[in-house]
Amino acid sequence: MSGAIYVINPNSTERVTRELDAALAPLRMAGGPAIECVTMAKGPPGIQSQRDADGLVPDLLALAASLEDAASAFVVACFSDPGLHALREQSRRPVLGIAECGILTALTLGHRYGVIAMMRSSIARQLRYIGAMGAGERFVGNLPVELSIAEMADERVTLDRLVAVGRELREARQADVLVMGCAGMARFREPLERALGVPVVEPAQAAVAMAIGRVRLQWGRSLG
Amino acid sequence: MSGAIYVINPNSTERVTRELDAALAPLRMAGGPAIECVTMAKGPPGIQSQRDADGLVPDLLALAASLEDAASAFVVACFSDPGLHALREQSRRPVLGIAECGILTALTLGHRYGVIAMMRSSIARQLRYIGAMGAGERFVGNLPVELSIAEMADERVTLDRLVAVGRELREARQADVLVMGCAGMARFREPLERALGVPVVEPAQAAVAMAIGRVRLQWGRSLG
Amino acid sequence: MSGAIYVINPNSTERVTRELDAALAPLRMAGGPAIECVTMAKGPPGIQSQRDADGLVPDLLALAASLEDAASAFVVACFSDPGLHALREQSRRPVLGIAECGILTALTLGHRYGVIAMMRSSIARQLRYIGAMGAGERFVGNLPVELSIAEMADERVTLDRLVAVGRELREARQADVLVMGCAGMARFREPLERALGVPVVEPAQAAVAMAIGRVRLQWGRSLG
Amino acid sequence: MSGAIYVINPNSTERVTRELDAALAPLRMAGGPAIECVTMAKGPPGIQSQRDADGLVPDLLALAASLEDAASAFVVACFSDPGLHALREQSRRPVLGIAECGILTALTLGHRYGVIAMMRSSIARQLRYIGAMGAGERFVGNLPVELSIAEMADERVTLDRLVAVGRELREARQADVLVMGCAGMARFREPLERALGVPVVEPAQAAVAMAIGRVRLQWGRSLG
Amino acid sequence: MSGAIYVINPNSTERVTRELDAALAPLRMAGGPAIECVTMAKGPPGIQSQRDADGLVPDLLALAASLEDAASAFVVACFSDPGLHALREQSRRPVLGIAECGILTALTLGHRYGVIAMMRSSIARQLRYIGAMGAGERFVGNLPVELSIAEMADERVTLDRLVAVGRELREARQADVLVMGCAGMARFREPLERALGVPVVEPAQAAVAMAIGRVRLQWGRSLG
Amino acid sequence: MSGAIYVINPNSTERVTRELDAALAPLRMAGGPAIECVTMAKGPPGIQSQRDADGLVPDLLALAASLEDAASAFVVACFSDPGLHALREQSRRPVLGIAECGILTALTLGHRYGVIAMMRSSIARQLRYIGAMGAGERFVGNLPVELSIAEMADERVTLDRLVAVGRELREARQADVLVMGCAGMARFREPLERALGVPVVEPAQAAVAMAIGRVRLQWGRSLG
User: Fold this and answer.
1) Contacts of D54 in chain E (CB under 8 A)
2) Strand locations in chain B, DSSP E?
3) pLDDT at position F9, please?
4) Do A176 and C131 lie within an 8 Å CB cutoff?
5) Which long-range contacts (CB under 8 A, 24 or more apart) does A200-203 make?
6) Which of these, B23, B164, B188, F189, could form a disulfide with F202 (CB 3.0-4.6 Å)?
């Protein structure tokens, strides 16, 4: 119980880890668990395909194993939740995924949720995951932002595109809550919410919030 | 953000409130939100029927209104989540229900969840609620403990019966995680888990854990 | 079996009760049960929010209790079916809700049904109800008419708006039967149906029709 | 509107038609539509297979065509609802099936319904039909009575077997309402209900009750 | 095992049978089962309604019975799969339907499938069938081509219309695989696929491919 | 089109590959595609956990890449379908999984399918997969055989246990078709089917049968 919640960014892009770290600041409480964000140096620079997601699992498991003793919980901070169930088998700590927790938390904020996907190539993967979660009944769809790297560098363009996709989910699909289908873009959450007028879930925050509860409550500890 | 999380026990039985209070101790962290458990004196002594659940809503709304300024969030601490959506309309604070959060949290602890209901009269009501939540895909069933008041007074008998029902859900329905379908019985959570060998969710703890996240993150604040 | 079917308008607007009464005329048969429409004077003037729906249940139960001896059945005539299950617990008579019966009847008139909601604020509440009913598989959506009170006073404007929403459900969602998501607007049913070219269900008529069968057949009488 | 509701028994067994006729007596009301039960002489003696159900459709359509002018509505009185949608295409009258209406009506009497099937050979056919209806969410299963003809001749044996199957659905599957998966056995409805303690739906009664409403309300008349 | 796979075109239009025959050429392999396409002379010229589909079953069963000894398997080559389950009861050979196999095969080619229906009158029938199959979770919808006979004679117009409908399913409904909802139009499969950029399933080819496997593997032979 | 169908056994146990090879003999036709079974030497000896399944994906992708030019299609021959979607991204050939194809094929052989799992540790993984496939509506459950290695060496004991689990799925869950949840046990298929009286699907055979169709038809070739 004295360990940290390790938030593993399974891609090798430090910038994403830094943004995660900043986004999680409100969840750091004096008497609460430490929250440590780590970059998986061996990961791909980004996770866009099923190959990227599947391919990083061995490294993720190795990294988590090296942190096991220092950890009170793990959060896998990629919206594909790669290796989530494998890590649950391996670790004796609570393990949470950001897609999983982002979606479950959205269900407390509205009735029909939509997912803002980053890439078109993620659409079917997310659908399979939502199917595996059994979370399809209140799901209205996922639509891609599909920004080029150049466009992503421009915050204004990025926000505009996030808003456009969110609006489509809200208007045509009647979403009344949205989940950001990515890690490391928490700084857009509030402006997006303000522009759209419906709650927006940042999934890494959602997952760490749930992890804090799990660390404090120690459920399942007796199960070994 | 400086207010307390108000955990409202909508029945008038102080003992339940005291047990809630004790159960939530691990979630009180230095630097985190205060957690206050309140008894709704005007509520029925217990909530066994749909009439009990529906009938208390006006009083619940009035009580919450009186606490609005002091509150950073509300948790409705009855497994029927009575008045949950009405209170969401009324309050500008995050509002969570224990059935809702207990079930959503269970989905991170196993694949198929079962609910240990207290009374046979709650079965259909819980089924309607799970249907409304769209949470039926991984639900294996709810079975009643159906203890008389005399039996409930005996901790040994109560635990034995909880274990028997949990075992039925695990064996015949293949539940790999269980949700306690009641408030105020948190002291049975760990022995139940140990006896059954699968994680057991205490729903009030689950809800307050999620409420802490919501209070810290302040999502939706801009939505007014 | 000699009592009347009491159709309770749980709002306090007499005009709605009068329209219900007129709409039910075709279901009054010489040898069939009497059909009495009553206004719940203590109800809100209209039922637009979950708070409205939940808040009226105690009064509804009291009103129904006062009619129990004179009743052969009850119909709750608000499209939220407020207090439906609570009244079923309380009464020994058949109890039907207009949303429930309107939707079930629609399933015999087409394959995919849409609901014309009156207010945007009813959308999520209806979705929760359809989820609780397990009636989502053939549901294509609900869209709001969202008329101001001034607009509602104009029959032409109202019909135009009903037609526009119905057309959207038929065209974009492929509804082949529509349910009017309100009580007291039966006079629009036929023109709406004619304008849209698909069957339109008036839910209070649907519910009373089913109630007549229940009164005549006396199922469940032996169950006490 | 002046025509009769024709209840077509699509098998050639007059005894079934006579039992239908007797069962529908409570639905004959002064001022209400006439209810005529007819035997399809060209039908098979019983309908046990998909071949039986599919094979009778041409004759059923021809019989209904001959009755069209005299009819205000049609009810297909076999629990496979054979030819239901074909007859809807052919006829300008309301057309209802007893399986369809029996199931929809059950949804107003309990939360989870089970079906007492007569033959093992009907199980998969009923499952396909319930799937086509989109009525699976609250369905707990169908189990066969599987009586030999000799056994069926003995009312005591038949009732005992109906009760045994109903009890299995209630106990092991948690059905709280049952549908009789056959026509012509209405005399067992009340004793079955009394023995089981949960409501039991006789589907031909359910269908004719809904047909009366449709005849009186004349929905869809303008659609031609 | 030495018999032929009989592909029965249940309509009387020889042209369709010839197109089936040509489309199945790639599935004729030295050492593999013979594939024979037969026209049902007694069938309707086309199958557009439920009446058409239901009405042909007796003739289909008779035709198949006459081929039983010569057959190693049957394929019902109409997208309504008329008589599929009846023929399964009758025949001791594997029996497959083109709608069934087209849809199941689509599930290996993409995540969300759409169906290009020929006629508006087929929409609800297909929906009932997909419901009966339990194949609705990954289904995004079916939209009709609705060509007049004159238009159908023009290949260019036909392809343009197929492309337009396919594009609507891909764009607005996010289908990533399409099923052609008809038999006898296999020549359009490749140009359609090329125009749309997503896989397109020709259902008769899908069914015969699966039939070959069944013939070679002889599963169920011991079941009699 | 001239390449072989490569059936990749992703575990390192040659015996399994040999059994696959023998089981696929009936699908080798003179004029059909060659079928080559290969062992993944770098794979784990068996695949029992999610870690096993996820961990082998990089090696599987590498092996398939080395075979790409010689292949006309790939079949992943482990009932977890590990790496299926990743390989679809990587390869320009049809790629099929044995769980996927075994389940889809079962849907043409009965209405409700059950899965005979080998290990208890596979249960939740299979449930997630069936959820991702959207194939849950006709699924009655998966139960584990859970044999020790010593027991597995005894064919009699193994068959008895397979039969016992199959009987449980047939009797208590009403499965009318069963899928063997493993590769390399095809020799038990026929005795199992004979003992149980319902069709039993061997999934590698099902997948290769579907692969033959895909190779012959060359769908999607134009999509690059």
Assistant:
1) 54, 57-58, 83, 86
2) 4-9, 35-39, 71-76, 95-97, 113-117, 139-144, 177-181, 200-201
3) 98
4) no
5) A200/A166, A200/B219, A201/A102, A201/A105, A201/A106, A201/A109, A201/A113, A201/A177, A201/B219, A202/A23, A202/A102, A202/B217, A202/B219, A203/A79, A203/A98, A203/A99, A203/A101, A203/A102, A203/A103, A203/A105, A203/A179
6) F189
Q: What is the DSSP letter of B29?
A: -
Nearest to C111 among E127, E136, E141 (CB): E127
What is residue C126's predicted lDDT score, i.e. its pLDDT? 98
Predicted local distance difference test score (pLDDT) of residue F149: 73
Judged by a CB distance cut-off of 8 A, whether residue A134 touches chain C is: no
Cα R_g (chain C), whole angstroms? 17
Cβ <8 Å between E174 and A128: no
Q: Does D52 touch chain B (CB under 8 A)?
A: no
Q: Where are the domains of chain A?
A: 4-97+205-217, 100-203
Counting as low any pLDDT under 70, the low residues of chain C are 1, 224
Q: Which residues of B touch D111 (CB under 8 A)?
A: 123-124, 127-128
Chain E interface includes A136 (CB < 8 A): yes
Q: Which residue of A has its CA nearest to C126?
A: A111
The ipTM is: 0.97
Give me C96's structure tokens.
Answer: 């039907």
Q: Given D31, D189, D210, which is nearest C108 (Cβ)?
A: D210
Tokens (6 digits) for A16: 């994403």
- Residue of chain F nearest D120, judged by CA positions: F174
Q: Is A111 on the interface with C (CB under 8 A)?
A: yes
Mean pLDDT by 10 residues, chain D (224 residues): 91 95 98 98 94 97 98 98 98 98 98 97 97 98 89 91 98 98 95 97 98 96 77
Rounded to a whole number of angstroms, the distance from the CA of F105 to the nearest CA of chain E is 8
With a cut of 50, list the residues of chain E below it in pLDDT: none
List chains touching A (3+ CB pairs under 8 A): B, C, E, F
Rounding to the nearest 10 degrees, give the CA dihedral for residues F14, F19, F20, F25.
130
Coil/strand/helix, residue E157? helix
**Nearest CB to B217 within list A29, A107, A209:** A209
DSSP string, B174-195: --SEEEEESSS-GGGHHHHHHH
Name the residue among B110, B137, B174 with its Cβ closest to that of F136. B137
Provide the 3-class DSSP secondary structure of residue E36.
strand
Q: Note the pTM of the prediction, 2 decimals.
A: 0.97
Per-position DSSP letters for D13-73, written without gaps between them: -HHHHHHHHHHTGGG--TTS--EEEEE-TTS-SS--SHHHHHHTHHHHHHHHHHHGGGEEE
Q: Is B209 on the interface with A (CB under 8 A)?
A: yes
**CB-CB under 8 Å, E54 with D89:** no
Region A100-203: CATH code: 3.40.50.12500
Q: List, for residues E106-153, the tens digit of each pLDDT value.
A: 999 999 999 999 999 999 999 999 999 999 999 999 999 998 777 888
Chain F interface includes E30 (CB < 8 A): yes
Q: What pLDDT does F147 receive? A: 86
Same fold, B4-97+205-217 and B100-203: yes
A vs C: CB pairs below 8 A: 13
Check residue D224 and give its pLDDT: 65
Q: B136 to chain D nearest CA, in Å?
A: 9
Q: E4-97+205-217: which CATH number, 3.40.50.2300, 3.30.390.10, 3.40.50.12500, 3.40.50.720? A: 3.40.50.12500
Binary contact (C124, A110; C-beta < 8 A): yes
pLDDT band at residue A152 under the 50/70/90 scheme: confident
E54 in contact with D, Cβ within 8 Å? yes
Q: What is the pLDDT of residue B1?
A: 54
In angstroms and rounded to an integer, the radius of gyration of the C-alpha atoms of chain D is 17
